[in-house]
Amino acid sequence: MSSEPAPHAAEDRYTVVVNDEEQYSVWFADRTLPAGWRATGAQGTRQECLDHIEQVWTDLTPRSARAPR
């Protein structure tokens, strides 16, 4: 028995999520979001979501590292 997650089809739907540090990721649209993450409203195939993230996440520095002290 494998502990690996089941593979998902290319047509699965995903949502773009972001955390308080303004770090982006993709998440299965039909699953509950993990604690600390919120949906951005962008959805699509995994690749469409990754393309969206590439467009909007232009500064990979976590928000806490960018904030003035």
TrEMBL record:
Annotated coiled-coil segments of the chain: none
Which Gene3D superfamilies does this UniProt record tie to the protein?
Answer: Structural Genomics, Unknown Function 30-nov-00 1gh9 Mol_id (3.90.820.10)
What SMART domains does its record include? MbtH
SUPFAM superfamilies xrefs: MbtH-like
Domain MbtH-like: residue ranges: 9-55
Pfam entry (one): MbtH
Please give the name of this protein.
MbtH family NRPS accessory protein
